[in-house]
Write a structure and sequence with these properties.
By secondary structure, the protein is of the alpha/beta class. It contains 19 helices and eight strands. It has two domains: 218 residues, Rossmann fold (3-Layer(aba) Sandwich), CATH 3.40.50.450; 315 residues, no CATH class. It has an eight-stranded mixed beta sheet.
């Protein structure tokens, strides 16, 4: 379980008003908004709708501030006074950054000490003015990406260009990041900005309207998305879920696919590589592992259930041919047919009541969000909250998934809010280590996976089609044989003996013919149906596309000069682009298989 969390970032003026009254008003505005956040997060986290979602204890409230002079330090002090934790991302190494404010170096160090180990120095450079501004831009964007509310202490002007307050505000607005705008001189009322459109009409949402929007922002972040608590809440189901017992029928799909691919079962997974140092990697591992395990468990049940339904339907068809008449043979055929139909009903019922199909998709979506975020988080980057919230939707952001899926994006964002920022430095050997971890987690394993999936899907599709054709031709041959038997008496001369005549040859041959004429076309249809239902050709095409995408991404990642200033930002851009492309492929898979429900028909 995660603690309830909320992160406040800061961007703002380096120089504040010297007017004592104006500065007091600005401080009062800061104290008011930070106190409101603390009170409302605490209240929502203990509300009935949040019961069972969060770990017990106080909320995890954070201020994310680069601790430059002026607004950065003002907000940091206000947050610390109210019990917020301080995280300090820096544009350069500490010794280099301190050159910006030699007169207030002691104040900076005192605040930095209160951040403790929660300090991250990115690999900025100062060889010229452009590189220096890019470094300020990088740290400002890091703050904006990793907060739930960005406080902007800003005069509303165009600013000083790249990396300035105006530039960071525009960046955040493009990401639909909520912004709480305060003037440096304390004048006017706080304003709410959430998009570039809001920036075009500054002051359009101020005072009480801004406070109302902030309330909605906090409530939406802290409370789960369902207005009522249903009998079966999918989020609480996930949090309470345990790994499923391995039962042999649920390995039917894997066994069939291994046989069709001509391969033995895979060997046990190798031990994972040594993770990068710090809290970030294990934090995301702890969330990825259970979601991935449950997705695998429910995937085995769902896929095996439709394989079993196909084969049981074929068996029922074969038994149905025996069930015509009134003898003992007909009774046995009817019993066998009813038994097959009963098993089909039971499997479909288990699938529906256990929501295997739904859980496979939602848990896989959640696990892959965690996997992508794990690589991004190493660099202080994050998937945009809107992208995560719409992971189950279409390209227009319109929900195409059942309402039960809305918890996936919400829970992912809640886990992101509670996650630690990376610590230490993003340069030198540390960056090389993170670069290797990204290649291993997002590239190497995924390339191998898609190479295998493409090859195996093509082989399995070809063999299932071949098996289906063989059973079809066997059916044709049997029909021809029956026709010859009936027409020319090649096996039994003369008319059929009367019932009860005791001729065993006729009874055995009839039983075999009737059974095979029912079973063989059923098996042919089963293999063809499994091939179509599994969308093997489409999976092979998707893997071919992903293989090309990953190969190109790997080449770009390996070509990066990790010793160059701000190489971490180039790495972050590449990883974000790759993660978004992989999520787009995942959304396509989810939309395709969402309609592949297991039904008795």
């Amino acid at each position: 379980m995660i603690p309830p969390a909320f992160r406040v970032g800061i961007t703002g003026a380096l120089t504040l008003t010297t007017d004592t009254k104006a500065l007091a008003k600005l401080r009062a505005q800061l104290d008011a908004v930070l106190a409101q956040i603390k009170d409302e997060v605490t209240a929502h986290a203990t509300a009935p709708r949040a019961a069972g979602i969060y770990a017990p204890g106080p909320p995890h409230l954070r201020i994310i501030s680069p601790l430059a002079e002026g607004a950065d330090r003002l907000v940091a002090r206000a947050g610390l006074a109210l019990g917020y934790q301080l995280d300090a991302p820096l544009p350069f190494a500490q010794s280099d950054y301190e050159k910006d404010f030699p007169a207030s170096r002691d104040e900076f160090r005192e605040l930095l000490a209160q951040a403790g180990p929660r300090v991250l120095a990115i690999d900025g450079g100062r060889s010229d003015a452009d590189e220096q501004n890019r470094s300020y831009e990088a740290v400002g964007r890091l703050v904006a990406r990793n907060c739930d509310l960005l406080i902007a202490i800003w005069d509303g002007g165009k600013g000083k260009g790249r990396g300035g307050t105006a530039d960071i505000v525009r960046f955040a607005a493009r990401q639909f990041q909520p912004i709480w705008w305060l003037r440096p001189d304390g004048s006017g009322e706080p304003c709410w900005i959430e998009s570039l459109q809001d920036l075009r009409r500054p002051g359009g949402c101020a005072g009480g309207a801004a406070a109302a929007r902030l309330k909605i922002c906090i409530r939406t972040a802290i409370l789960p998305p369902l207005e009522e608590v249903p009998t079966q809440d999918p989020l609480r189901d996930f949090l309470a879920a345990q790994p499923k017992r391995d039962f042999w029928p649920w390995n039917t799909y894997q066994n069939l696919m291994w046989r069709a691919a001509g391969k033995p079962p895979p060997a046990p997974a190798l031990s994972p590589p040594v993770p990068p140092a710090g809290e970030t990697w294990p934090y995301w591992d702890r969330h990825f592992a259970p979601a991935d395990r449950l997705a695998v468990d429910y995937g085995k049940r769902y896929r095996s259930s439709y394989i079993l339904v196909f084969f049981l339907a074929a068996a029922a068809l074969g038994a149905a041919t025996l069930g015509i008449g009134f003898g003992a043979e007909a009774w046995a055929g009817n019993v066998l047919e009813l038994g097959c139909l009963g098993f089909i009903y039971r499997i479909v019922h288990l699938n529906e009541t256990g929501r295997w199909h739904e859980r496979l998709i939602t848990y896989r979506l959640l696990a892959e969000l965690f996997r992508k975020q794990q690589a991004l988080a190493l660099l202080g980057w994050s998937l945009p909250a809107a992208e995560a919230a719409h992971v189950s939707g279409d390209s227009d952001g319109l929900p195409t998934a059942p309402p039960r899926d809305v918890w996936v994006g919400w829970y992912f964002n809640a886990v992101v809010r509670a996650s630690p920022l990376p610590q230490g430095t993003l340069g030198g050997p540390a960056l090389a280590e993170l670069h290797g971890a990204v290649l291993a987690s997002l590239i190497a394993g995924q390339v191998d996976y898609h190479v295998r999936r493409r090859r195996d899907s093509q082989t399995i599709a070809r063999r299932l089609g071949r098996w289906g054709r063989r059973f079809f031709f066997a059916t044709v041959a049997l029909v021809v044989f029956k026709f010859l038997v009936l027409s020319y008496g090649l096996v039994l001369a003369g008319p059929p003996p009367a019932a009860g005549s005791g001729d065993p040859r006729y009874g055995v041959l009839t039983t075999v013919l009737r059974t095979c004429l029912g079973l063989l076309p059923g098996l042919s249809a089963a293999f063809v149906g499994i091939r179509g239902y599994a969308e093997l050709e489409l999976l092979a095409d998707q893997s071919a596309q992903m293989q090309r995408l990953l190969t190109g991404a790997e080449a770009r990642l390996r070509s990066l000069d990790l010793a160059a200033p701000l190489a971490s930002q180039e790495l972050g851009l590449e990883v974000l682009a790759l993660a978004e492309a992989m999520l787009l492929d995942l959304k396509g898979w989810a939309q395709l298989f969402r309609v592949k429900v297991v039904e008795p028909g």
